[in-house]
Amino acid sequence: MESSKSEILFSLLTAFLYHCFLSITMDTLFPINPVTPEGFSYIPEFLSMAEEEKLLHEIKEVQLHTFQFQGYEAKRKVKSFGYDYNFNQRSITKGEPIPEGFDFLLQKISDKLNIDKERFAELLVTEYPVGSVINWHRDAPPFELIAGISLSSDCTFRLRPYDKEKQGRKSIISLPVKRRSLYVIDGASRSEWEHSITPVKAVRYSITLRTLRNDAQH
Ligand SMILES: O=C(O)CCC(=O)C(=O)O
């Protein structure tokens, strides 16, 4: 009897140590499959390395400028094509057309999401220098679905409820978003949650595609 008790204790201890070992060696600071809000999806390895290369080449041709918001200048650089949201006027304006070099990406994402590629009204290119972030926000109201492509490096993407009363340390969902992946923000993750990116460890580029709401004024 005594020996079976110590055997059970030994097995429990071994299982515990094995769990600790896995957590350390697999670098699981994040749960392996974090539970994300309804409407959020994440597709790793969405792009091939050749497609990533092609997009980075296309981005080199884009004239990026520092993102400014109500007198505040962020570290990240951006350029918007198609419809752009003017944060001062709180409305969208039509800008330069989306360059043809991005056409294959629009096609690939719309095929994946089973939507018409013409529905992507805005394509935003963002460059994140080392250490730069995007703070907590919910995207501008005229836009509906958001599709995000990550290039060059990985980042930590976070989601938390938009409602301040539901916010707290425990309500933050952190997930590693890898280069060449696609994430989609739609449904509740679009309307009831906000997102942010923690300081990037290496230069990151993203391409954000947005559809317009049917009732958006333009
Ligand atoms: O870089 C990203 O993936 C996020 C971009 C974003 O949230 C935004 O531009 O509003």
UniProtKB/TrEMBL annotation:
Which residues span the membrane?
none
Does the entry feature the keyword Transit peptide, yes or no?
no
| Occurrences of domain Fe2OG dioxygenase (ranges) | 119-213
Q: What domain of life does the UniProt record list for this protein's source?
A: Bacteria
Q: Name one GO molecular function term.
A: dioxygenase activity
Which Pfam families did the record assign? Answer: 2OG-FeII_Oxy_2
Q: Which PROSITE patterns match?
A: FE2OG_OXY
Per UniProt, which keywords does this protein have? Dioxygenase, Oxidoreductase
Oxidoreductase: present as a keyword of the record? yes
- What protein does this entry describe? Alpha-ketoglutarate-dependent dioxygenase AlkB
Name the species this protein comes from. Chryseosolibacter indicus
